[in-house]
Design a protein that fits this description.
The complex is a heterodimer.
Chain A (H helix, E strand, L loop, with lengths): L1 E5 L6 E7 L3 E5 L3 E4 L3 E7 L3 H11 L4 E7 L2 E6 L7 E13 L4 E4 L3 E7 L2 H5 L5 E14 L4 E13 L3 E4 L3 E7 L3 H6 L4 E14 L3 H10 L3
Chain B lengths: L3 E8 L7 E8 L3 E5 L8 E5 L4 E5 L5 E5 L6 E4 L3 H10 L1 H53 L2 H14 L6 E2 L2 H14 L14 E5 L6 E3 L4 E5 H6 L3 H16 L2 H9 L2 H8 L4 H12 L8 H17 L6 H13 L7 H4 L4 H15 L11 H8 L32
Parallel strand pairs in B: 9-11
Antiparallel strand pairs in B: 1-2, 1-7, 2-3, 3-4, 5-6, 6-7, 8-9, 10-11
Helix pairs in contact in B: 2-7, 2-8, 3-9, 4-6, 6-10, 6-11, 8-9, 10-13, 11-13
The chains are: A mainly beta, B alpha+beta.
Chain lengths: ~220, ~400
């Protein structure tokens, strides 16, 4: 299987060239086009209950699509919003994805929904997060560009910018500064990410766009 | 000693991307982490003597073991990992474990304190906000002219489910209107004027009565048939009329409304309020009062009955009849289901009636037997023609004073 992320960073999409016997799991509705030689099969995303949690709390579909072929073929996968995509290789390690970030993975990657905590909910990062573990490639997307930070200590991230992080990191919610600075400086609550590990951030926030749009509607 | 395997991971610069999942084994001398073949299949090792421990990660339960030059970090989240490490490492990890326990204990205590303080502040702010909002809403309701009550009441009347046909029989409706007319002069006045109380009797086996904002009194034939004398019905009417004069319906609307509608009420904009009243009237919530409001209406109703020469203990006796017949199953009686704490209320009513002293009882010019009989037979339809219904008699009650609540 050959893969390539194209048209980065604004309108990233994944081109997957499947060989005979290859298969790929993708988020429901991620397929933009595929060869007629490719078969698509919908299945529960990690069993019924996992799929239900993904749907209710993770803003993801209950189903994922599995693409495979007996000969060869191409699949183009995309995400609903403009922005970059990232591919990482899991070697038995785990990554948490924020709701809506998952795009695709190889069959060796296991997807489950995990409790993120009330702190995460208050910080508008969702009650649940998607846990990707196992072996294989994992693709996820973001609104805007994606940048990574290796943390050994603490990093402060504005709410709505977190895309993915490793389980070795703990997310705390806190204020950006004092009470006055936090609320009148426009930053409000922020995520304080502590520990050792890698975090993937998006350069734009969907909530920020919604607030900006709303302010200019009338 | 038998070694034990766990699933976890390892950070090391030699690994692709600097990290990989790993199978971790604790043996007699230290911790080994073997990464999968896809990541090189290498084994990384940290001896017990070289291991510093830390706990954290997303769950807060992940244990990190770092070597002294921090080039290798082995981590694991499995429950038995720390206890196995303690058992295998013995004295060699005792110091590291003791530092870890002290740090984590302090962190947990801090977190508990933060949660406790946060929840307490949220509860205090929530309660204070509710109280302030409720008081502001009630003050705004008191400032509205009484014509607003009348509009709201009629709007609610057009929206609510009537549960049955209107009884037009002169004997039945006339008797109930006569009770309302006797109580009306004793009701609170607004800038010298009183609400125009109009009686509507509905033929339905419901033991219920209510008075909508503005003064429309609705009595179901089920309640008339259940009462054993006119004083019982008149006392219930007094209680319900008191809800209207105390403007509980409007307060209920203001409290049930969302903050936007409530703010509209406060600034006197009644557009959104109209739609809201229709909605909550359809849900039957407009005459569903709180315990404090019920008690207030009990006391005001007794005062009205006392001034009107009605035996106000009828309210307590009516409760007793219902309690005796239906025991502690209030849901079968709608009037009771909206009036909780029956036993306690009966005692309070009895006490208050006693405190009001003897009243000059005025006999009813009502054939009660005929009223009950005809209320049970709606086919008797000698139509009631109102004479003075809805007209303010203008007779002041004993404690009438210039109304401070009028706008």
């Amino acid at each position: 299987m050959q893969t390539e992320i194209r048209h980065r960073p604004a309108f990233a999409n994944i081109r997957v060239q499947l060989e005979r016997g290859d298969s790929l799991i993708a988020e429901s509705d991620a397929m933009a086009s595929m060869s007629s030689t490719v078969a698509m099969r919908a299945r529960w995303a990690g069993g019924f209950f996992n799929a239900l949690i993904r749907r209710v709390f993770g803003q993801e579909s209950m189903f994922v699509n599995e693409f495979s072929t007996d000969s060869e073929g191409e699949v183009i996968l995309t995400q609903p919003f403009p922005g970059d995509m990232e591919c990482i290789e899991l070697n038995g390690n785990t990554v948490f994805l924020q709701p809506g970030a998952f795009v695709a993975c190889e069959p060796g990657v296991k997807l489950t929904a995990g409790w993120a905590g009330f702190g995460s909910y208050i910080g508008k990062e969702g009650l649940f997060r998607l846990k990707a573990s196992g072996t294989g490639k994992l693709w996820f997307g973001a609104y805007g560009g994606i940048f990574t930070r290796e943390i050994t200590g603490e990093l402060v991230v504005d709410t709505g910018h977190l895309v993915a992080y490793e389980p070795t990191l703990k997310i705390h919610m806190g204020m950006a500064g004092g009470i006055f600075s936090s609320f009148f400086g426009g930053e409000g609550l922020v995520s304080k990410i502590r520990g050792e590990g890698r975090v993937y951030l998006q350069s734009r926030s969907m909530g920020g766009l919604a607030a900006w749009t709303n302010a200019h509607l009338y | 000693m038998k070694s034990q395997a766990f699933q976890g991971g390892v950070f090391h610069t030699q690994l692709p991307g600097g990290r990989a999942g790993a199978t971790i084994v604790i043996d007699a001398d230290g911790i080994s982490a073997r990464v999968p073949d896809s990541a090189g299949g290498e084994t990384f090792r940290i001896g017990f003597a070289d291991c510093s421990l830390q706990q954290g990660g997303a769950s807060g339960r992940m244990v990190f073991c770092r070597d002294s030059n921090r080039s290798t970090t082995i981590f694991c989240e499995e429950k038995q990992f720390l206890s196995t490490l303690a058992a295998s490492g013995g004295d060699r990890v005792a110091s590291a474990l003791s530092t870890l326990n002290a740090t984590e204990g302090g962190k947990r205590a801090r977190t508990r304190r933060h949660w406790l303080v946060g929840l307490s502040v949220a509860a205090i702010l929530g309660f204070a906000g509710y109280q302030a909002f409720s008081r502001a809403g009630n003050a705004a309701v008191r400032a509205l002219p009484i014509s607003v009550d009348e509009k709201m009441g009629e709007l609610a009347w057009s929206a609510i489910d009537k549960h049955g046909p209107e009884v037009k029989d002169a004997v039945v409706v006339g008797a109930i209107q006569k009770m309302a007319d006797r109580l009306a002069p004793q009701s609170k006045s607004f800038a010298g004027k009183r609400l125009a109380f109009r009686v509507t009797v509905i033929d339905a086996p419901i033991v219920n009565a209510f008075c909508l904002p503005g003064g429309r009194i609705v009595v179901f034939t089920g309640l008339i048939r259940k009462a054993s004398d006119p004083d019982q019905v008149a006392s219930v009417l007094g209680h319900e009329m008191a809800h209207a004069t105390l403007r509980h319906g409007l307060q209920r609307i203001a409290q049930s409304a969302g903050i936007i509608v409530a703010l509209q009420i406060m600034v006197g904009d009644l557009g959104g309020l109209m739609a809201f009243v229709t909605e909550i009237a359809q849900q039957g919530l407009i005459t569903s009062y709180g315990r404090e409001q019920e008690t207030e209406a009990d006391m005001e109703g007794l005062l009205m009955a006392h001034g009107a020469g009605i035996d106000g203990s009828g309210l307590e006796r009516f409760f007793a009849v219902l309690e005796q017949e239906h025991g502690d199953v209030p849901e079968v009686l709608q009037w009771l289901s909206t009036h909780p704490q029956l036993t306690e209320r009966r005692a309070t009513i009895k006490q208050r009636w006693k405190e009001l002293g003897p009243s000059k009882a005025v006999a009813w010019e009502i054939d009660w037997e005929a009223v009950v009989k005809r209320a049970g037979n709606p086919s008797l339809t000698a139509e009631y023609k109102p004479e003075s219904a809805g007209v303010d008699s203008g007779v002041p009650r004993a404690d009438d004073a210039p109304d401070a609540t009028a706008p």
